[in-house]
Specification:
The structure holds 2 protein chains of 2 kinds. Chain A is about 30% helix and about 30% strand. Chain A is an alpha/beta fold. Chain A has one domain: Rossmann fold (3-Layer(aba) Sandwich). In chain A, the strands form 2 sheets. In chain A, strands 6-7-8-3-9-10 form a 6-stranded mixed beta sheet, sandwiched between helices. In chain A, strands 2-1-4-5 form a 4-stranded antiparallel beta sheet, covered by helices on one side. In chain A, strand 4 and strand 5 form a beta hairpin. Chain A is globular and about 50 Å long. Chain B is an alpha+beta fold. Chain B folds into 4 domains: about 150 residues, no CATH class; about 180 residues, no CATH class; about 210 residues, no CATH class; about 180 residues, no CATH class. Chain B has 21 helices and 20 strands. A 6-stranded mixed beta barrel of chain B has the order 2-3-8-5-7-6. A 6-stranded mixed beta barrel of chain B has the order 12-13-18-15-17-16. In chain B, helix 1 crosses helix 8. The longest helix of chain B is centred in the last third of the chain and has 44 residues. Chain B is elongated and about 100 Å long. Classes of the chains: A alpha/beta, B alpha+beta. At the A-B interface, helix 2 and helix 3 of A face helix 1, helix 7, helix 8 and helix 10 of B. The structure holds adenosine-5'-triphosphate (ATP) and magnesium ion. Magnesium ion binds next to helix 1 of chain A.
């Protein structure tokens, strides 16, 4: 379902070029739970940006759901992303001038994939799923970090994406709250959502289909033991 | 898209202060732009309705030794389509204050036969056929309780005429500007005893109205026809086609009006862009986030553009009526100068539509740039909040040059958002620059006129109605306050300027051998009194005509007699008191017959004091004086013409400056908001409020210094341009642009002081207010 073929990403800057991804090949199946790990600066975020179409590779092809992202123009790419990919960031990135419910609705209305009549009910049910049914009218600055992140997840799910991408979604939360968030992700994955998560946290005790290890832009280690690490 | 627009509108509503300021600046730009377009439309319409509908004659001719039948002969010419007799009579009249004023009467043959130079009868007081109508704008001078006027004719006879009503002729100069009483008469019966025997004046209409060259040819034929009929052409005038006599003043006013409109709209546009930036930038990370969840750059850009259009549209609602009213006010001024009655009818709808379209398009185009830039924000930039990084080169520069860390901090901050800093700099610089320009312009003109008045040799000039002889005026020499006199003979001559297509009419002033021109008033060449064919030019218009001609160039002048004389271009004189910038030439022998007298006044008298004395002396001898000018009054008049100009420019500058300071506060507010986190860090590192305020002050101090520097750079060419325009249109002489350095210095210091106080007060207040928020901020 997601195919990366010989992806290279080079950032050129006055201080010299940075080769952030080097000939990366990766194949992810529908419904996979993929965990990406690696040292700081190794290229994890770059990889996610390329999969979600936020950034373009310097060379190589990327195909998501039979769609070659290289064929899409900037504007088409944005719409495609809105319909197919849900993104959760480390620092939540909610829109501060919109309420909790409106943040989710906004994402729906932007692409109108969900029929308009159903949008509100659906947004409310997503927020209910993440335990925020009582905070629909609140604004982001009135929420705790964990609550904000749950709004962000509800927003990422707004358009029923086939892929959910999360860059250190628990990196900014205490371990208990982080655990709650991970459970939400786990549940979603069990419902069939393809999940790609970057994490710094200890991955012991978590199930996954693929573990991707990146070092200096080289995808150096893959494993898919669908087992619980001890 | 609708969802993005409604979010933006919500954001707008959340920062009502900025929304209001955006509306104000949108209104400002609409005001400026619409006032320019409206006033252009009004001026065109007024001209059509007032001037064009008087059916101005193409040629005005005075015939001597008139023989019956001449009219038919003239009308037989294929190019002449109409001809009408219209006499002009000059006399003096006592105004309501008992002072003598010039009186000019235009006499038509019959009320019904007026076809050319049409005047309107506004009020009819009698049923009599032949009556005297006073030009409505000249009534101001007359005692309105009297129903008659008393006139003094050049020959010395006085006469009393009943006032038959009022009239209006937009072709005339306004009476109050000209300080003359104009009148019309609907019959020649009353005038007949005062007309010169055998002379007749005709207005001629041709079918080649707009072609000066062809009009010249027709004029030549008129002279021939007159000659063949045994008459002669005493004078012939071709008024510049389609131009009011005050066209030059109108041009000057409309230049000012245009620049004022332009500057107001520029200010509005800059302010709009500035506030837009301060509105968009705090939300720029929103843009990146919206992109991450499916919004594209183009959609974001269009959404912003729609919201902006809405704001500008609202601005139009305020700005357009303002622009209309401003244009009206300007137009009333222009109409006054032209003796027009401004048309007050509403414009057709399409004109308002056109104005609205242009007033919408221009600010939208300008403001689109920051929006385009903002909408290009990438998701990564939004997530890392890296859209305002210090400019790398500036950063390196300040790193190298400055040791002091607060200097570095302030300079780097300034270039974090360089387009914002630049806009602010421009706004303040334009305001300061305009103010300084007004001051410099006033200074330049004042200095130039003062210099002239102080060194002019002849303080008083007298114009006679006819030719005079030396012995007739020699008594003037004996007046106690007269040092010397010098006769001057003015002749109307035709000539063709070197590169001109058409010939032109000017006065040639022949000076007597003893007439002195001070060396500093000889701008080019040398005075050679022994040379009778040396010709000197004066005034800006002629200087430009001869721009690329070397001294020694031959100039051919056609004398009133029709004889052609060749002169040698020998230099340029400066004579600001001479009306209409004449040619000058010296007569090598004594000037026997002349039309004007220059009087040098003894140094313990002023020209003003002796003017009446001279007038009385002439009156006593029964000599008719057509006009008298003393240098001070003349220069005072010129200065008076320009007074409103300085004022307008200075007020415009001050208004811009206030707006600039307002912009400064907006940006300062935004900076503090943006850097709450940084300020928190500074606070936690032990910085006091005073120190933090100091950092902001330093940052804005750079802008202040930059603005002063820029405004001085701006004022120089602007002052030079205005000096040039006003020199050409109002003073008729070049005004060298000068800088009023002491005022520039003082204004700069005052400006910096105000800025200092404003920033200290505001940032102190603002930082204290956000202190709690600062501490609560997580970092
Ligand atoms: N916009 C950019 N311009 C230049 N270099 C960049 C840019 N973005 C990332 N890099 C570089 O590319 C490399 C990979 O960065 P990336 O953000 O993918 O790392 P990461 O694995 O996500 O690190 P972390 O765990 O700290 O988030 C780094 O060396 C980084 O410095
Ligand atoms: Mg990262």
């Amino acid at each position: 379902m997601i195919d990366l073929k010989d992806i290279n990403k080079i950032y050129s800057s006055p201080g010299g070029d940075v080769h952030a991804l080097k000939s990366v090949n990766l194949s992810i199946q529908k419904g996979d739970n993929v965990i990406v790990i690696g040292k700081s600066g190794s290229g994890k975020s770059t990889l996610l940006n390329i999969i979600s179409g936020i950034d373009r590779p310097s060379s190589g092809n990327i195909i998501v759901n039979q769609q070659d992202l290289g064929d899409l123009k900037e504007n088409e790419l944005a719409l495609w992303r809105g319909k197919n990919i849900g993104i959760v960031f480390q620092f939540y990135q909610l829109l501060p001038s919109l309420s909790v419910l409106d943040n989710v609705l906004f994402a729906m209305k932007l692409v109108n994939k969900i029929p308009r009549k159903l949008q509100k009910a659906k947004a409310e049910s997503y927020l209910e799923d993440v335990g925020l049914a009582s905070k629909l009218k609140k604004f982001p600055n009135e929420l705790s970090g964990g609550e904000k992140q749950r709004v962000a997840i509800a927003r990422a799910l707004a358009n029923d994406p086939s892929v959910l991408i999360a860059d250190e979604p628990t990196g900014n939360l205490d371990s208990k709250t982080g655990e709650q968030i991970n459970q939400i992700f786990q549940l979603l994955n069990e419902k069939g959502v393809t999940l790609i998560t970057v994490t710094h946290a200890n991955i012991a005790g978590r199930t996954y289909d693929q573990l991707v290890y990146i070092e200096d832009g080289i995808l150096s280690y893959k494993s898919n033991p669908k087992v619980k690490l001890v | 898209m609708r969802v993005i627009i409604s979010k933006l509108l919500k954001d707008c509503w959340l920062s009502k202060g900025k929304l209001l300021l955006m509306l104000v600046s949108a209104a400002l730009s609409a005001w400026g732009i619409s006032s320019m377009i409206y006033s252009y439309q009004m001026a065109e319409r007024d001209f059509k309705v007032n001037f064009a509908s008087t059916y101005p004659a193409d040629i005005e001719v005075l015939i001597g030794n008139y023989q019956p039948g001449l009219e038919e002969k003239l009308l037989a010419d294929l190019k002449i389509i109409d001809l009408e007799r219209r006499e002009v009579l000059g006399a003096r009249i006592k105004n309501a204050n008992g002072e003598w004023m010039p009186f000019v009467l235009y006499g038509a043959e019959d009320e019904k036969s007026v076809r050319l130079n049409v005047f309107r009868i506004l009020e009819n007081r009698t049923q009599e056929k032949g009556k005297i109508l006073i030009e409505t704008n000249a009534q101001f001078f007359l005692d309105d309780t009297k129903d008659s006027i008393e006139l003094l004719f050049p020959e010395g006879e006085t006469i009393k005429w009943m006032i038959g009503g009022t009239s209006h002729d937009p072709r005339l100069a306004p009476a109050r500007m000209e300080r003359a009483v104009f009148a019309h008469s609907t019959s020649l019966k009353l005038l007949a005893p005062h007309l010169k025997n055998g002379q007749r004046r005709f207005l001629i209409e041709t079918n080649v109205s707009s072609d000066r060259q062809l009009l010249e040819e027709v004029s030549e034929r008129i002279k021939k026809i007159a000659k063949s009929e045994g008459s002669e052409v005493l004078s012939l005038v071709i008024p510049t086609p389609g131009e009011h006599i005050h066209q030059n003043i109108v041009d000057g006013i409309s230049f000012l009006q245009k620049s004022m409109g332009g500057i107001i709209s520029l200010m509005g546009i800059i302010l709009l862009s500035l506030i837009l930036l301060t509105w968009v930038f705090p939300r720029i990370s929103d843009l990146g986030i919206m992109k991450a969840i499916g919004a594209s750059s183009i959609r974001l850009f269009y959404a912003y553009l729609m919201v902006l259009s809405l704001i500008i549209l609202l601005g139009l609602i305020i700005g357009l009526p303002l622009g209309y009213e401003t244009a009206r006010a300007y137009n009333n001024l222009v109409a006054f100068v032209q003796n027009f009655e401004p048309v007050t009818d509403a414009f057709p709808f399409w004109i308002h539509l056109l104005v609205a379209f242009v007033a919408m398009l221009i600010p939208l185009t300008f403001a689109a740039f920051p929006l385009l830039k903002a909408s290009k924000t990438t998701v990564q930039q939004a997530i890392n909040k890296t859209f305002y990084l210090a400019n790398k080169r500036i950063f390196q520069f300040s790193q190298r040059v400055f040791q002091d860390s607060s200097l570095k901090y302030s300079l780097n901050n300034l270039f974090r958002n360089s387009s914002r800093s630049l806009l602010m700099l421009m706004l303040v610089a334009v305001g300061l620059g305009l103010f300084l320009t007004g001051a410099n312009l006033e200074y330049s003109v004042k200095k130039e006129l003062e210099n002239f008045a102080n060194s002019a040799k002849y303080g008083l000039k007298v114009r006679f109605s006819g030719q005079m002889k030396q012995e007739e005026v020699s008594f003037i020499r004996d007046l106690p306050f007269v040092e010397s006199i010098s006769a001057m003979d003015d002749k109307t001559v035709h000539y063709k300027a070197p590169n001109a297509f058409h010939s032109n009419t000017r006065n040639l002033r022949i000076l007597s051998p003893q007439h002195e021109i001070k060396e500093e008033f000889v701008l080019l060449g040398q005075v050679d009194k022994s040379c009778s064919d040396c010709l000197y030019i004066s005034g800006e218009a002629m200087r430009q005509e001869f721009e690329d001609k070397q001294l020694g160039h031959k100039i051919e002048l056609t004398m009133p007699s029709g004889e052609k004389n060749t002169f040698v271009y020998s230099g340029i004189f400066k004579d600001m008191a001479a009306i209409g910038s004449p040619f000058f030439a010296y007569k090598t022998s004594k000037l026997d017959s002349f039309t004007a007298l220059a009087i040098e006044i003894k140094s313990d008298f002023t020209a003003l004091e002796v003017t009446n004395g001279v007038d009385d002396a002439f009156l006593e001898k029964g000599i008719d004086v057509a006009g008298m000018i003393n240098v001070n009054t003349r220069l005072g008049q010129l200065q008076g013409h320009l007074e409103p100009t300085y004022l307008i420019i200075k007020v415009m500058g001050l208004v811009t400056l206030v707006l600039g300071l307002l912009g400064l506060i907006i940006v300062l507010n935004l900076c503090i908001q943006e850097r709450t986190r940084e300020l928190g860090i500074l606070k936690s590192l032990g910085s006091s409020f005073g120190k933090m305020v100091g950092l902001f002050r330093l940052e804005f101090f750079w802008i202040g210094i930059g603005a002063i520097f820029l405004s001085i750079l701006l004022t120089m060419p602007l002052n030079a341009a205005l000096c040039k325009v006003l020199g050409e249109t109002v003073i008729y002489h070049q005004i060298p642009p000068r800088n009023f350095w002491s005022l520039i210095g003082l204004s700069s210091v005052i400006f910096l002081l105000i800025q200092y106080l404003l920033i200290t007060a505001f940032s102190w207040f603002r930082i204290r207010k956000s202190a709690n928020a600062m501490m609560a901020h997580q970092f």
